[in-house]
TrEMBL record:
<protein>
    <submittedName>
        <fullName>Cytochrome P450</fullName>
    </submittedName>
</protein>
<dbReference type="Pfam" id="PF00067">
    <property type="entry name" value="p450"/>
</dbReference>
<dbReference type="InterPro" id="IPR002397">
    <property type="entry name" value="Cyt_P450_B"/>
</dbReference>
<dbReference type="InterPro" id="IPR036396">
    <property type="entry name" value="Cyt_P450_sf"/>
</dbReference>
<dbReference type="GO" id="GO:0005506">
    <property type="term" value="F:iron ion binding"/>
</dbReference>
<keyword id="KW-0349">Heme</keyword>
<keyword id="KW-0479">Metal-binding</keyword>
<keyword id="KW-0503">Monooxygenase</keyword>
<dbReference type="GO" id="GO:0020037">
    <property type="term" value="F:heme binding"/>
</dbReference>
<comment type="similarity">
    <text>Belongs to the cytochrome P450 family.</text>
</comment>
<dbReference type="InterPro" id="IPR001128">
    <property type="entry name" value="Cyt_P450"/>
</dbReference>
<keyword id="KW-0408">Iron</keyword>
<dbReference type="GO" id="GO:0016705">
    <property type="term" value="F:oxidoreductase activity, acting on paired donors, with incorporation or reduction of molecular oxygen"/>
</dbReference>
<dbReference type="GO" id="GO:0004497">
    <property type="term" value="F:monooxygenase activity"/>
</dbReference>
<keyword id="KW-0560">Oxidoreductase</keyword>
Amino acid sequence: MQNTAHAAGTDGPELVDTAPMIEDLYPALATLREAGPVHRIAGTDGRPAWLVTRYEDVRRLLADPRLALDKRHAAPGNYSGFSLPPALDANLLNMDPPDHTRVRRLVVKAFTPGRVERMREPVRRIADELLDAIASDGRADLLTAYAGQLPIIVICDLLGVPQRDRRDFRAWSDALITPDPARPRAAKEAVGSMLRFYTELIAKKRAEPGDDLLSDLIRVRDDEAGDGDGRLTEDELTSLAFLILLAGYENTVHLIANSVLTLLDHPTVLQKLRADPGGLAAAFDELARYEGPASLAIRRFPLEEIEIGGVTIPAGETVLLSVASAHRDPAQFKDPDDFNPHLGRSGHLALGHGIHYCLGAPLARMEMEIALAALLRRFPGLRLDVPRERLRWRPSIRARGLISLPVAW
């Protein structure tokens, strides 16, 4: 029987409780997926949203042009996401074609495969230095001391952020990504600080360009300035730098930490990868599928009434695509709750799909492979330093990340 939502602001289907998704994600998603392909829930902003649970639908809708990312297509009163100033909000996560096509084309000119490949040796050096710093301790919170350090250093190197500013950079990022309930104004203050910082940094790099991605983006923006609709605006330039930091930091931190935990939970696979680190490249896709860092794709808004899995959703309502549920869908993956990189499973959606496929995917792959290879090589006795049941996940339906990862060696 078809389920039709009412317009935003009126009564609709009863909301599904999302608490089980926070308490035990995958069993809760399995229950929803088996019950139906689409469910009405309280979204990440507390307002009603539609959650899509099955792989076939999620993959198709990630590339469906009828679902917009631009918040201006949200129905009045339907969505209230985190508020950013225009100079940080004009990024690819809020854009649809033709703006998305234009901006992505210009970013690709600067974020080249060659640039990523040149970072391979510096990333190895960073990983080794971080492990040197904790090696004699015999134990550490790997999330704080390693997985949380490597990506911020890499992103700052990539953007050309001066060494003296990096501590502030990480504090601002953490305030946005993991807000402290005891400091309700911290996120807003971090946004203001980051906007001032980026404005000043762009001005300095425009005056004295360096061999970094931000300098190249400035060149692209300024070189294209006379090209009419083909140019980047100054807000788009600043927003790109902001997005590169947040996307390159948060997701990679939890991709590394989640992968370490997955390998510790599967010692036979861990031993094989320790003996043959070359296998980490092939294991990446299974690690990203099994315990990826994003439970949900970025919210979307139908441009017109749309039917998903027999449910009719009006234009402008919020649609959430559950990547985590899609990755455990038995209709797509055999024995999806088992971790087995040797099965050669393909088709994970951890890096997106369609025109919004992650621009930084090659960098994320390289960082994780190098981070895991260095860790397995340096600490052959790596093990959890607390009982497995004491580990806690962040209380979020949007992101899948540990609060801490205590290990010993």
